[in-house]
Amino acid sequence: MPLLVHVVVARSAPSVAQPLTVGTIVVFAAVLIAAWPARAAHLANDTHNIDDVQVAFGQALASSPASDIVWAVDAGAIRFFGAPFVVDTIGLNTPEILGDDRQAFLDRHEPKFLDLFPSWSEVQNERHLELRSQTFATSTPYTVASNRWMRSHVLVFCEPPGLRGRMIVRGRPLAFRCAS
To answer: Is-contact 69 111, C-beta < 8 A?
Structure first.
């Protein structure tokens, strides 16, 4: 912005351009300095939110073997902190599930764990069993995004082995069979 101000003013009033540019820089610096404490507090809270939910979810999987598979709605921190192979059910990191042979890919990657993300996904199984789960939720007000449902994720243990069901992600059903 200061450069834009300089270029525009320099064309019509060259003698004023440099002082006006310096003034613009000073004003921007003052606004940034004044806003910094609130912005820093917001970013610190965002960090707490991510640590409480996504990082904790991933760390809960850290001791699992890399041969295990988790179907995740939000793959980032889960992939970074967890050990299992991550199938990103949104498709950002697993484009194979966006194509026509999505189900064949999923059949080759039977989950040991599922990421239940309220309002984005649900898990149904053929026996209507209540699956063992662990919930990760924020300990501070949720500020990372406007979707309040993102304040928690549920780690679902896909068991017993061979149990069939479907994970519905954003209205798209994905059939699964729990890994042996």
So the answer is: yes
